[in-house]
Hints:
By secondary structure, this protein is an alpha+beta fold. The chain starts with a helix and ends in a 5-residue tail after the last strand. It has a ten-stranded mixed sheet with strand order 1-2-3-4-5-6-8-7-10-9, with helices on both faces. The chain is globular, with a radius of gyration of 18 Å. The chain contains three helices and ten strands. It has helices at 2-20, 92-100, 129-135; strands at residues 21-28, 31-38, 43-50, 53-60, 65-70, 75-80, 110-120, 139-145, 156-161, 165-171. Helices cover 20% and strands 43% of the residues.
Amino acid sequence: TAVLLGLVLTPALADHHQQTEISKKISFGGGYQLMTINTKWLVASIEQKTNHGSWKTIWNYDTGFMATKVLPEKACYLSIMNRTEMPSFDALPQLAADIRNQNHPRSPSKEITFTLIKRTIRDLESYGPDTFSMCRGLSTYVAYELHGPQFSLGSCIKLDVLQYLALKYCHNDNFV
C-alpha cells in the first residue's frame, strides 16, 4: 500500500513543487544572477556570483521586508521594501525573461539608496525562514531608504539587480 501511495503521490508532489517555485539564470560577462521565486510564500531571491564578489537579496512581498547579504562585507542588511520602486511580484518572471533576451547588459533604470544604521538585529526569525537562514551568523544591520539629496554618504556598495534596480547601501558617518 505504501509503495502504491508513493507512486501516486510522487508525480502530484512534483507538479505542486514546480508550480510554487520558479528559477531563472541570467548570465553576463564574468558571472550570472540566479532568481528564484516562491509563489506560495510570495518570496523572490536574487543571487549574483562573479569573480569580483557575490551577494544575495531576498524580497518578501508578503511581509514587505527585504534582506541583502553582501559577502565581501560579511554582513546582512534588512529594510522595508519600497513597493513603488520595486518590480511587482507578478512581473518578476517576465522581467527575467526580458533580460535573458537582451544582447548586451544595460544599467538599471531605478536606484534605491539606503543608509546603514549600526543597530544589530537580534531576532532574525521574525523576518522569515529565508532571511534567518541567509543572515544567521553574520552581522545584520538596519538599512533605511534615503529620499531627496544625499550628502556625505560615506562609502557605498551598489548592487545591480536584474539590470532593473540598483540597491545602493551606504555607511554613514556614525557607522563604524
